[in-house]
Amino acid sequence: MKINIKVKTLSQENKVIKDDKRYVVYVTDPPEKGKANRKVIKLISEFFKVPKSEINIIFGEKFSNKIVEINKFGANLPKSENLPISNQSINNKFQKYISKAHSWER
């Protein structure tokens, strides 16, 4: 899952708030030598209840607007953050792919 975040450094407290379109992460650390990014990863991991190792900043490492990827898809994430696709839908697509692959072998 990928989420958009806005980081506000040198805040009075560390917290994560869900905004209309993104998450706002308030950190007390300064934006130097990766301190704020490390705190962002820690706060996002606590907010979504996933290990820090499952979180990567994939865009905006040196900017306040970032895209963060949470690799442990669907673990303890809110339903609205999960892709709107069911296991049945995935299974149907997989079956179609397999049947096409078999037809190519003939």
Helix content: 25-40%
Number of helical regions: 2
Elements, N to C (H/E): EEEHEEH
Top CATH class: Alpha Beta
Class inferred from helices and paired strands: alpha+beta
Number of domains: 1
Task: Return the CATH architecture.
Answer: 2-Layer Sandwich
CATH T-level fold name: Conserved Hypothetical Protein Mth637, Chain: A
* Rg for CA atoms: 18 Å
Largest sheet composition: 5 strands, mixed
Percent of residues in beta strands? 15-25%
Q: What is the CATH homologous superfamily assignment? A: YggU-like
Distance between the termini: 38 Å
Mean pLDDT: 81
Kindly state the number of beta strands. 5
Poorly predicted segments: 79-86
Order of strands in the sheet with the most strands? 2-3-1-5-4
Principal-axes geometry comes out as elongated
Features:
five-stranded mixed sheet; 106 residues; single chain; Conserved Hypothetical Protein Mth637, Chain: A; 2 helices; elongated; alpha+beta; 5 strands
